[in-house]
Design brief:
three-stranded antiparallel sheet, 754 residues, alpha+beta
């Protein structure tokens, strides 16, 4: 098999682009570009403008596309997406809770709101928009930050064989840019020498039908094509960034982590303490045994030699018991301190691990599996290789949001079905205005030489003008235009309605008051029914894409944020002070033992396992008035209190209002409690008055109770004194027993010596 060189990799990049940039791709981009042009009100080609001008007709357009697209974009991007993380185990819950905050932090750093708006606009006008999740290595003083960014859809080339609407099954996704040499050097200064050797790009092609020089809008492609080819450092070159998937061999290794030397010293100290208690118990038992043997010798039950042998056996058995106990305690302590650690490692790292004898013994199990990794290969021109990285993620960092998926990498935009209706509306308006111009500027029929032509051309349309003609000629007669056909007015109205029908965006959603319902509930109904088409797109395409984006961010973030880091997040809320709006999040907090050694991490972000879900409907707009009406109904029904009602409003200083209201409620509750207490006291006084009659009887009963209590106390005192005396006698007996045992032990030792 031929070796793949760096030059070969650059050539492969060019070949992949040739494969993706086929005739289908080129036709799609032409159609897509036309939709984008119509959104920018570039709705007439140069040929169409020339024909209209030659016919004396107006060249204006009535843009119905832009307001439709803008309201669709607003509906989709009214709020930022929200991701919710769910921990796989109990240990991962703490990390999962902060992941959403980290995502918000990186989204804010990336100016996510405007970024998301632009990508949604790409999807609506060009057919597809692209997110890129990448690491800005220079951010945070070289520590790096994970960022979201946008890719121009016309710079992205996808494997034509892909059939997944998120392109997860694609063999490759390539970003190809026509870029000036100086800008590329500024982007990649470490490869400046290589970039300077790249030849100029000659395949800069425009897919727009509009007149670039006379168009109303300036697009990125216009600027690229307008760069002077004479400047040596400003010539256009092709830059390729290819992402591909490759399966690598990995091992899920379960390692037995034995205690360290320091931990072993601590274990030995603990074992010695427990062993000392066991030794004392053994010694007491040995003394008792020897006393029994001595008593047997004195009574003549056994001879002294037999007693000596039994005594020796008892000592040996005691020593063996102590030794076995020590081994048992050490084994149990080591087993308790030994943990099984799960670790995923590459095949090469696992091979190195097995070469270590200590580690090899501690490998409990190793399960081989294969997992995707993303290969990023970058080159410039046809054959200049720049670099290649293996990214620590399993999915492409490029996430598409298509509008109308066609089963291919070439989706249709929301504008494309509107182009025909937009042209119809433009044509009808142009004809009606042209007819109005003809009616206001009459044409005349006259015999040649009957009128002074220059004078008539100058004054024939002037109000109150007196026009003369020469005698002997027929009187000039005006040529009246044919009355405009009412069908043109019908075409305009039906074209407008058809555009709304095709897009699913009624006029009421665009703010046209004459189209809105007179009642509030009717307005809410129009809002609900008028957005169903958009909600369907949100539920089936946008939210799954955002959820996939959240997972891609999770992979990128967990692989990058591996050391201790503090995130400071500002979450503004009405009524809060700047200090209250700030939130601090810490991850990968190192844990140390008493000796200063790192023993683990708290909130270990890199190794945590959790799943990410997008909050459904989080990006859609909220009808504040409808929401407040619902809250008011709940308040009237008694389901919520007035404090909860105020918290959901936009009233200024609502926090202070809520605090005052809460304090008032507390004081009111305290006052009510005092009133209830006063009522109770009044009732108690009445009860005491009634009980005064029974006081004599109760007093006598009380005297008898006191006598009985006195007897009980005397009995308890006597019992306490007796227990104290018994304890003293027991302590004396215990001390005497210890002395007897010690004396017996000394006698046994003397007999051994003799």
């Amino acid at each position: 098999m031929a070796r793949v060189t760096k030059k070969n990799k650059a050539q492969i990049n060019k070949q992949l682009w040739d494969r993706a940039n086929n005739s289908h791709r080129q036709r799609w981009q032409t159609i897509s570009q036309k939709g984008y042009d119509f959104y920018l009100d570039e709705q007439l080609t140069k040929e169409e403008k020339d024909q209209l001008e030659e016919s004396g007709m107006p060249t204006f357009t009535i843009n119905r596309v832009t307001p439709i697209v803008e309201i669709m974009k607003y509906f989709v991007t009214a709020n930022d997406p929200k991701w919710k993380a769910v921990g796989a185990t109990g240990d991962d819950v703490d990390v999962a809770q902060v992941h959403s905050d980290i995502a918000d932090y990186c989204w804010y750093l990336s100016n996510g709101k405007s970024l998301y708006s632009q990508i949604a606009l790409d999807a609506l006008t060009k057919g597809i928009g692209y997110f890129l999740v990448d690491v800005d290595k220079d951010a945070d003083r070289g520590m790096g930050e994970v960022r979201f960014s946008r890719l121009d859809p016309y710079d992205v080339f996808v494997d034509p064989a892909s059939r997944d609407f998120l392109f997860r099954d694609a063999n490759f996704i390539q970003v190809r840019k026509n870029i000036s040499r100086s800008r590329l050097i500024n982007m990649l200064p470490q490869f400046a020498t290589k970039i300077k050797k790249v030849t100029r790009n000659t395949d800069v092609v425009s897919y727009s039908e509009r007149d670039v020089d006379l168009g109303e809008s300036i697009q990125p492609e216009d600027i690229t094509m307008g760069i002077s080819l004479e400047a040596e450092d400003e010539d256009i070159i092709a830059y390729y960034e290819t992402y591909s998937k490759k399966k690598f061999e990995y091992y899920n290794v379960y390692l037995r982590v034995v205690p360290t030397a320091i931990e072993m010293d601590l274990i030995k100290d603990q074992v010695e303490k427990e062993l000392e208690n066991f030794k004392q118990e053994i010694e007491v038992g040995l003394i008792e045994k020897q006393m029994q043997i001595q008593q047997a010798v004195e009574s003549g039950e056994i001879i002294p030699e037999r007693a000596q042998l039994q005594s020796k056996n008892s000592e040996e058995m005691a020593a063996q018991a102590i030794k076995e106990k020590e081994m048992q305690l050490m084994s149990e302590a080591q087993e308790a301190a030994t943990v099984i650690k799960q670790q995923v490692m590459s095949a090469s790292d696992y091979k190195i691990l097995k070469q270590s004898e200590d580690a090899k013994v501690n490998i409990v199990d190793a399960i081989k599996f294969y997992e995707n990794r993303i290969i990023q290969t970058c080159s410039a021109g046809d054959d200049v290789f720049l670099y290649e990285y293996t990214l620590p993620i399993q999915e492409y960092p490029i996430v598409p949001i298509p509008y109308m998926y066609t089963g291919t990498p070439f989706p249709m935009s929301a504008v494309t079905p509107l182009i025909g209706k937009q042209q119809e509306i433009n044509k009808a308006h142009q004809i009606m205005l042209h007819n109005a111009n003809l009616a206001s500027n009459l044409r005349w029929m006259y015999e040649e030489g009957a009128v002074p032509e220059e004078e008539w051309e100058k004054y024939s349309s002037a109000p109150g003008a007196l026009l003369k003609y020469r005698q002997g000629f027929a009187t000039p007669t005006p040529i009246l235009p044919a009355p405009i056909n009412n069908a043109f007015y019908t075409v305009v109205q039906e074209g407008k309605s058809d555009a709304e029908y095709i897009s699913g965006v009624p006029s009421a959603m665009m703010g046209f008051t004459q189209e809105q319902s007179e009642t509030y509930r009717g307005l809410l109904a129009n809002d609900e029914f008028g957005t169903r088409r958009l909600k369907a797109w949100m539920g089936s395409v946008v939210e799954p894409a955002l959820e996939h984006l959240g997972r891609c961010f999770q992979m990128r973030a967990q692989s990058h944020y591996t050391i201790e880091k503090v995130f400071r997040i500002v979450q503004p809320e009405a009524g809060q002070t700047p200090q209250e709006q700030e939130k601090e999040i810490r991850i990968n907090i190192q844990l140390y033992n008493d000796f200063g050694d790192v023993i683990g991490k708290f909130k270990d972000y890199a190794s945590a396992r959790f799943d990410v879900r997008v909050v459904a409907g989080a990006t859609m707009p909220v009808n504040r008035w409808a929401l407040l009406e619902e809250y008011f109904k709940w308040f009237q029904a008694g389901l919520i209190d007035d404090i909860a009602m105020i918290a959901e409003t936009d009233i200024r200083n609502k926090k202070q209002i809520v605090e005052r209201k809460s304090l008032y409620s507390q004081l009111q509750g305290q006052l009510q409690s005092l009133q209830e207490a006063m009522k109770d006291k009044d009732g108690t006084i009445e009860t005491l008055q009634r009980q005064l009659v029974q006081a004599g009887i109760k007093m006598k009963v009380g005297d008898a109770s006191n006598e009985i209590r006195k007897d009980v106390l005397q009995t308890e005192a006597q019992q306490k004194l007796l227990r104290g005396m018994m304890k003293v006698e027991f302590d004396k007996m215990k001390d005497q027993m210890k002395m007897d045992i010690q004396s017996t032990k000394q006698d046994v030792s003397k007999n051994k010596e003799e």
